[in-house]
Structure of G-protein coupled receptors family 1 profile domain-containing protein:
Amino acid sequence: MESPPAWPLYVYYGMSILSLPLYFGVLICLLRLRYFSKTYKTTFYTILLQHCIADIISMTVFTVIWAIRMLPGLKEFYFHYQEYYIAAGTYNSIYYFLYIRCAGIVFLSIHRYLVISAPTSRITMRIQEAATWQIVLVYWIVPTLISLIVLKDTDFHYDALETMEVVAPRAIITRNTLMALIIVALTCFICVLSYLALFLFLRKHSAGFSKNLQRELHLAFQVLALLCAFFVMFAYYIFQNYFSQTQNTGPIYTMRALYPIANGTLSYINPFCILLLNRDFSRQFMRTLKCEKVRVSEIQVSTVKSLSTQRK
């Protein structure tokens, strides 16, 4: 069997060197702001925080059990204890973290639609007033339940100590790639539908946006930019599913070699979206880098909460 190309992994290393420290900085800044300001304790930022954590954990796990599995000493350990879910975890974690981030972008997109188009509706108010622990549980439990189909598989092994490629039964590969394609496709469909509905709403109500509503709209653009990375993953799984269905094992391993780039794009685009499209956060991020005090107006709270206050 022809060895898969190694250059995608080097591209991934380059992406990680630049993006992972930046992502940690964004996460620390977000946690700091949540301590000082009510603005960053809203439902949107709670979901966004979970998405950031999921991205960082995903990249850390991927690097430890996949990207650096060829390091001397480490690969011998992995190979010797591969039956203790190491080989299975190397393969299954790819889908688990994919589904977590699919759920995250769906939650963010639907939240943007509800907050902007129906800020005083009962469902929006319940979402906005949900406790942090409730949001966290929903964010992680929903994709975990979906992933149980994948996580239960253990019939994996490394082909050889020299290559450390994970060998999986064709039936599992076919099922998982098809399932991933369907879930990513549904993710893109739901998110696009949410933004189309939001666009139609904005066309009908284009006049008289308040500052709070404009701020919520800016956050919607931030999520929309993040959604673009999911179309890259969608294209990836279209090809991966095609090759798995045609029983052509060579391209399957080639596509697996290209996965670090697709996965890195999916994760590492988020901090850039936040910093480039969220001006309020960007200013606070720069203050954090300079070790300056936080300056956040407590008036900058969610549109829903502002409207709710006005109605009382």
